[in-house]
Amino acid sequence: MHLVKIIYTKTKIDLEIIDDGIGFNEETAKRAKLNHHLGLRSMQKRIELLQGEFEIISKMNEGTIIKIVIPVENIPTREDFDYE
């Protein structure tokens, strides 16, 4: 099962990505980083740029949950970009 939950309020966006796959442990994550598999790390850095929170909960043979919280005030709008 894969599930994405998004809750949008006036002050924040809560996002949960749930995967009931095989999960991983800390050692697996370290090896992935050494092999330049930076998907989760890239997600974390982008959330940090928005002053948000990023948490990974994973257990072998139980799956993974990624929790993200982003303050709405830090999300760029179309007006924040200069398209000219």
TrEMBL record:
<protein>
    <recommendedName>
        <fullName>histidine kinase</fullName>
        <ecNumber>2.7.13.3</ecNumber>
    </recommendedName>
</protein>
<dbReference type="InterPro" id="IPR004358">
    <property type="entry name" value="Sig_transdc_His_kin-like_C"/>
</dbReference>
<dbReference type="InterPro" id="IPR036890">
    <property type="entry name" value="HATPase_C_sf"/>
</dbReference>
<keyword id="KW-0418">Kinase</keyword>
<dbReference type="Pfam" id="PF02518">
    <property type="entry name" value="HATPase_c"/>
</dbReference>
<dbReference type="InterPro" id="IPR050482">
    <property type="entry name" value="Sensor_HK_TwoCompSys"/>
</dbReference>
<keyword id="KW-0902">Two-component regulatory system</keyword>
<feature type="domain" description="Histidine kinase/HSP90-like ATPase">
    <location>
        <begin position="7"/>
        <end position="73"/>
    </location>
</feature>
<dbReference type="InterPro" id="IPR003594">
    <property type="entry name" value="HATPase_dom"/>
</dbReference>
<keyword id="KW-0808">Transferase</keyword>
